[in-house]
# Entry
Amino acid sequence: MVAPTWNLQWTIGNVRVTRVEEVVTYIDATALMPSFTPETLAPHRDWLVPHFFSDRNDKMALSIHSFVVESDGMVIVVDTCVGEQDRPLPNDLGFPDRLDTAIDGGLSAVDMVLCTHLHFDHVGWNLRAVNGQYVPTFPNARYLFARTEVEHTRTDDHMEVLAPSIDPLITAGLVDLVETDHQLTEDVRLIPTPGHTPGHVSVLIESNAASALITGDMTHTPLQFAVPELAASAFDTDSALSTQTRRDIIERFVDTDTLVLGTHFAPPTGGHLRRSLTGARFDT
Ligand SMILES: [Zn+2]
# Structure
C-alpha cells in the first residue's frame, strides 16, 4: 500500500479535472477477473508494467480516487471512494482533508456528487462521522444517483451493506435521481455504460473541441481495453453486457483525441486508446 503524495490534474477546454487519491493497492487480478491468467497479461506487459501491473509479482494496481470536475462555475465530485463506514481502511489517510485542500473553497464548495454506480468503493465518503453521527461530507451538494442504479440496490441483497452511505441522503432529500444520459453542465454529461451494474454511468466532458471520458468501473484496468472480454465477473451483474460496453466504448473513442481517465487506474491514470490487434492499447 502506497501513501498518496500527489494529485494529478488535466484541463479539457474550459473544464478542469483533479484526481484526489485515497489509496493505491495491489491485488490478485483473479479476485476481480476470475478468467485472468499470466498468459492474458503476457502480450501486453511492455506497456502495462510497471504503472498498471507490478513488475515484481504481476499483481494488478487498483487505485481508489475521486475526480473533482470543475465546469461552468460548478464543482462536481465523481465517486467518493471507500470511506470508513463499517469498512475501515488500515490507516485513516485523511482523505476528506485532502479533498478539502484540493478544492478551491473546500468541501463546502462542492455543488454535486456523482456516483458512477453504488458499489462500496464509490460511495464511502458520501457521509462522514462527526461527533458520533454521520453527516454529509459535502454540506452544500446535491447527490446524483442514476434512477436505475438505486432501483437495482433495492433488488440486490448485496447492496444492503451500502444503505448507510445512501439512504440517509435520500431521507434528507439531498438526492437527485437522474437518467443515465443526464446533463450536469453545458460541457459535462453522463453516458450509460451498463454491465458492471445496470445503472452504471461514465462521465463525458466536451469543451472547446477537447474531450475526456471518466470510465467508472466499465473497466478496472487498461488490460480490459486490450482484452475487452476480460470481464470483472466477480462483481459484474452482467459480464456479457460489460464486455459489449467496453467494445462500444473502444469503437467510439479509439484513435481519437479523447482523453480517457480511468476510475481505478493508478498514475498516470489518463491516456488515449490506440487500436491494437485484440482491442485497444492505453497510451499514456
Ligand atoms: Zn470500483
